[in-house]
Write a structure and sequence with these properties.
six-stranded mixed β-sheet, 11 strands, 531 residues, alpha/beta
Length: 531
């Protein structure tokens, strides 16, 4: 199955150029070697039997090289999205060392899931994964047989450590279910909920949508209002690294005020984009900040960018105070900020925007970013005309899934992140979401696949699969106390791309359950389970 990529050739160009540069000297050597031979063959006076004209050896070589370039470009195109350096966006920004193990997925307890350590690190290559997702291998052989898959997976998924479980394996090319163990049984999904959130947000908003934070000026009151646009990736750090910068917003706002001759302002902030409580039902928790449309660096109290950490009590007020301090650095005196609401009379002073939604979805899935997940669920609600609170966001996600004709029987969406234990998903829905993300008719959903953590390579899988399916399994993890889940894609031994979902509730212990799920995914990758 070949999945179309958005804006592919712009990203594939550097790869083609590098390959062409590497091949060109070889072509020159071949031409030099074959030239004298061809000259001798054409020497006049040499008796030759009549023969059918055939292309010269040099022609074959050039043709093969050209085909190789086309194939390389095709692989680079299908494997994206890529940036100008040839790396997947999320992997460039969030790459982790192979043996990283800091942080957790959800519950705050140390685990092998791992979140990226602080500081930049080089991302190792993963050619086997890119080949699998490129679709060039998926049509090579027929899909696995159900009975053969059952003989491999049943013993592993019946591990007592998994408690109650639900599982499904689907052929990604056809959508046909190849294996099921109570696939319609709705269980607590934990962070695999983010797959549903990602599909709903991309469907409602589109992959190019950006989250904008702005400042406006109220002419009647000479008030500057910092309007939250629901971008949790907004940063106040000196190095924005591609995120929207609060520092840039302050500089642009100060410049706009200076043009008006304004040097003193009343500073306010507007958080009315969201409705309802800012506190998640789980209460104060290091896995996420208060859910508000205005925050800087996810309200973190250190320099981390992912994983659990203490948060400021009021992210919106904290961001506004920081903004006031930044205005002062540019010669604008501002009062201590307070909550307000911008009016229709206000004029925009400056704006900053997040990376596109495609990149945000990748970051959310790769790092299991709960703050980003809650934000995207609320933006889905705003886009579909529902209240931007926990209830409205859950209803909006389900509505989008229904519109995509996905199986939502028994499904309950309580939040965007999966931290709420009241949420319920089925293995059947999770595999259907993954197949839909690879459907050529829905290229806007492609970031759901490219954002999945890569086994022993990125995000919450970086500390797993040291043995077995490293680089082959791409999957979203989910961990709560007594809950372990895994859903993603794998290329089996026959080169077939499969979507799978394993959900386990009432698990005995997190490490034992996680190991059991990893064994099942590894067995699926190693399976040559055709008839």
């Amino acid at each position: 199955m070949v999945v179309p990529e958005l804006r592919p050739w712009r990203a594939a160009g550097p790869h083609v150029v590098r390959i062409a540069d590497a091949v060109r000297p070889r072509l020159a050597r071949v031409a030099a070697a074959t030239g004298p031979w061809l000259t001798r063959r054409r020497r006049p006076g040499s008796p030759q039997a009549p023969r059918i004209a055939r292309p010269a050896t040099g022609w074959y070589t050039a043709t093969a090289a050209t085909a190789g370039l086309a194939l390389a470009a095709g692989v680079a195109t299908a494997a994206g999205p890529w940036d100008s350096t040839g790396q997947r966006t999320a992997e460039r920004h969030r790459a982790v060392a192979l043996d990283a193990s800091r942080g957790t997925d959800h519950d705050g307890s140390p685990a092998r899931a791992g979140t990226p350590p602080r500081g930049p690190q080089e991302a190792p290559p993963a050619p086997s994964v890119l080949t699998g997702l490129g679709g060039t291998a998926t049509a090579a052989r027929s899909a696995p047989a159900g009975k053969a898959l059952a003989s491999v997976l049943d013993p592993l998924l019946k591990d007592p450590a998994l408690g109650r479980r639900s599982a499904a394996v689907v052929d990604a090319a056809t959508g046909r279910r190849l294996y099921g163990a109570d696939p319609g049984n709705a269980l607590t999904p934990a962070s695999t909920t983010k797959i549903a959130t990602a599909v709903a947000a991309l469907s409602a908003l589109g992959p190019d949508h950006r989250l904008t934070t702005r400042t406006v000026y109220e002419p009647d009151t000479k008030e500057v209002v910092l309007v939250g646009g629901g971008d949790p990736t907004l940063t106040a750090r000196k190095k924005a690294k591609g995120s929207a910068s609060l520092r840039d917003l302050a500089a642009r706002t100060a410049a706009a005020l200076a043009k008006r001759g304004v040097r003193k302002v009343t500073l306010s902030y507007d958080t009315t984009l969201y409705k309802g409580d800012t506190a998640h039902p789980i209460g104060v928790n290091p896995n996420l900040a208060a859910v508000t449309p205005l925050m800087a660096d996810e309200g973190r109290t250190d320099d981390s960018s992912s994983g659990p950490v203490s948060r400021v009590a009021d992210p919106a007020a904290d961001a506004a105070r920081t903004f006031g301090d930044l205005l002062k650095e540019h010669g604008i005196t501002a009062t201590p900020p307070g909550p307000s609401k911008s009016t229709t009379r206000a004029t925009t002073l400056a704006t900053v925007s997040s990376p596109p939604l495609s990149s945000l979805v990748e970051r959310m899935l790769t790092n299991s970013d709960n703050d980003l997940a809650e934000a995207l669920a609320r933006h889905t609600a705003v886009a579909t005309g529902k209240p931007a609170d926990f209830t409205g966001a859950g209803a909006a996600v389900i509505a989008r899934l229904k519109q995509l004709k996905l199986p939502v029987k028994g499904v309950v969406i309580k939040d965007g992140s999966g931290l709420d234990r009241g949420g319920r998903l089925t293995a059947g829905l999770l595999t259907a979401l993954l197949v839909k993300a690879g459907d050529p008719a829905h290229p806007e959903l492609r970031p759901v696949l490219t954002g999945l953590p890569v086994a022993h390579f990125t995000g919450t899988l970086s500390g797993r699969y040291a043995d077995g399916a490293a680089g082959v399994v791409r999957a979203k993890t989910g961990t709560l106390t007594g809950v372990n889940t895994l859903a993603g894609t794998v290329v089996d031994r026959d080169g077939r791309l499969l979507a799978f979902a394993f959900l386990a509730n009432d698990t005995v212990g997190p490490e034992a359950a996680q190991t059991a799920l990893d064994k099942a995914a590894t067995a699926l990758a190693a399976c040559g389970c055709r008839l």
